[in-house]
Amino acid sequence: MSTDTGVSLPSYEEDQGSKLIRKAKEAPFVPIGMAGFAAIVAYGLYKLKSRGNTKMSLHLIHMRVAAQGFVVGAMTIGMGYSMYREFWAKPKP
């Protein structure tokens, strides 16, 4: 028993760049979280050679916690922004 009616919908192929731009407009704090994560990881790798007497595992744990904290903070602020935009900034009909 098939439900195919023979009607084909035009397929819309979206490339990665336009998809990222569309998602960034829908949730602007996602790219901010991604950029912050990348910046903290880059900073951690840069500081890896000059960590002094700090153990490698401790340095990596600190960098992981900092990166995760930034991403969670960006997600929290983004969720608050989405709630504001949906419930309070929306004009009432």
TrEMBL record:
PROSITE patterns: HIG1 (PS51503)
Alphabetical UniProt keywords: Membrane, Transmembrane, Transmembrane helix
Sequence intervals crossing the membrane: 27-45, 65-84
Domain of life: Eukaryota
GO biological process: mitochondrial respirasome assembly; negative regulation of apoptotic process
Pfam (any one): HIG_1_N
GO cellular component: mitochondrial membrane
Keyword Metal-binding part of the UniProt annotation: no
Chief location: mitochondrion
Start and end residues of each HIG1 domain: 1-93
Subcellular location: Mitochondrion membrane
Protein name: HIG1 domain-containing protein
Organism lineage: Eukaryota, Metazoa, Chordata, Craniata, Vertebrata
